[in-house]
Amino acid sequence: MNFPKYEQQFIKEMNMRNYSKETIKNYVSCLKMFFNFFKEKEHPIHINEDNIKEYLGGFSVTNTQRSQHGAIKKFYDVCMGQKDKFKYIPYARKEQKLPIVLSQDEVQKMFSVCDNLKHKVILALLYSAGLRVSELINLKWEHIDRSRMIINIIQAKGKKDRQVMLSPELIPLLEKYWREYRSKEYVLNGWKNEPKYSERSVGQVIKQLAEKAGIKKKVWTHLIRHCSFTHLLEQGTDLSIIQKLAGHNSIKTTQNYTHISNNIISKIKSPLSNISLS
Description:
about 55% helix; globular; mainly alpha
């Protein structure tokens, strides 16, 4: 099967529909696996519903199966004109796994052990406004509006712009950072001649800080975003405001933070408190 031909056709169709580069990249990666599995087929149209169900059933991880489902379905819709091919192929039910967030004391420990100015800026930007790693590395100096005390997040997930708060505590830290590093366009300049920092490097920074702070929980970059919004909720910020800051389409996504929060759960009065145990 001529995968490069269909790949280019798919990319062209997705660009016309204004999908993000990251989404297209992920979809193409899924399609490559799909076509490789059916490489003996002469044409995608010869892959029937039962074939697709068999293929998707081979993925034991639900989220991986859902990603494959979405990419293949989109391909048949935009390139083959066969949207109904998936009419009787339902998505696997989404796994509801809640991350174990850090306490504010644990976040403080990460800041306390951080003696690298650039690394402290990375952690502060992620935590102060719940930025995604892609939003962090694409942040430019011109996006920081000190007059209005906001940070403009441009063309984030779903190609949407939004605004988040600029913490007053960030300003002297950013000023000190700029005087030392003199980064030009992007706030986080890359290694040597690279114009911006990489996602991988951010991940290494967060992991190393957690290890240095002696935190035993699993810590990764996106967890800092979860910590930010969970802690905002715990200090009384309205859920609808957190939804806006996070850039969530649905309030249901934001409501997950009510399940993650240990402080909220720990304050719930158990019915056992009305029972005498003596």
